[in-house]
Amino acid sequence: MTGHNTSHKVVVIGGGYAGTLAANRLRVRDDVAVTLVNPRPEFVERIRLHQFVARTGQATIDYGTLLGEGVELVVDSATRIDTAARRVLLASGGALDYDYVIYAVGSTGAVPSVPGAAEHAWPLADLESARRLRARLDELPPGAAVTVVGGGLTGVETAAELAERGRQVTLVCGRTLAPYLSSGGRRYVAKWLARHGVTVLEGVTVTEVRPEAIVLDDGGVRPSALTIWTVGFGLPELAAASGLRTDALGRLLTDETLTSVDDERVVAAGDAAAPSGRPLRMSGYAAGPLGAQAADTVLSRIAGTEPAAIDLAFTGACVSLGRHAGIRQIAGKDDKAVNVYIPGRAGALIKEVTCRFVVSKRIRGEARKPGSMSWPKGGPRPETPASAPAISA
């Protein structure tokens, strides 16, 4: 570690996969004072929320077992980044001075625009939503009709987990079931769901959610005692509220070093980053490397050296199908699935090992030895044709 007289204050906003790892990695230097701001006193394993809802697993971990020595945890919410005064304003009325901010606020579920969905559908993108959903499930009789809206990986995992617990589940996919997967991977998932009694509706969308039913775009009305909404991502509005430019979804616009295009003392990580207006897939997979690279960018600026461009190769995705099956989809470094996948118990084992690896090896590994994490590299990202990204002020 490098010793210096002055202390550099870094405030990390958001204690998810990216923010927690970044906070630990910043301790490479002993002259960096790291404060992690998070609205909850515990870390949420978002990739396990479907297990939490189905009562097949837990989704929270004590920060005391994750954060390296010297990282200060402030349980509060940031309401504004005052870039002129270099202060993060907090919901409690307090404020934190900073030299650098790592913006790792993560993502949450999108607010649905479908009539009745905001009132009658149940999201599951954060811990509070998952707690409410779990309590509601406990009240339902075992044979009640449950609908999961959204055929992406979260929707598939949720439907599978509940079906394995004996629930009567319908999965409404919109266009396609699990569009990220290869055609072979999709066929495997479809067969598993059919075998476990899940009704999969492809090529239809929900046009209205009622208290006890859903209405489809073909005019059909299906009973639904509980409708779970897993469609789309939303982001906190902190960046825009702080006068920093974002993309249309609310991700902070950055250059390829994850530095805000408006302020070189604000660096983004994880789902909240839109480098060059071309964000990476929102995922737990990308969160760790982006957290590490955000920390490295801050450390480079402190050292007076040029920060490196983001360098991450995707390798695919893992999907759990209940507790005994799953699928490991292989993809090229550009994150496009190839027709190679590992199904069944082996797929389930890989998914579980991956979930544990992210916490025990990556986050705790950085707590034990800051700067130690490595990840698959893909080289500089290719330039895309100069079509202007959608920007909101």
Automatic annotation (TrEMBL):
Q: Does the keyword Flavoprotein apply?
A: yes
Taken from the record, one Pfam family name reads Pyr_redox_2
- Give the start-end ranges of region Disordered: 366-393
Would the keyword Flavoprotein be found if you checked this record's keyword annotation?
A: yes
| Residues annotated as domain FAD/NAD(P)-binding | 9-276
| Keywords assigned by UniProt, alphabetized | FAD, Flavoprotein, Oxidoreductase
In terms of PANTHER family, this protein maps to:
64 KDA MITOCHONDRIAL NADH DEHYDROGENASE (EUROFUNG), APOPTOSIS-INDUCING FACTOR 1
Which family is this protein grouped under? Belongs to the NADH dehydrogenase family.
Protein name listed in UniProt: FAD-dependent oxidoreductase
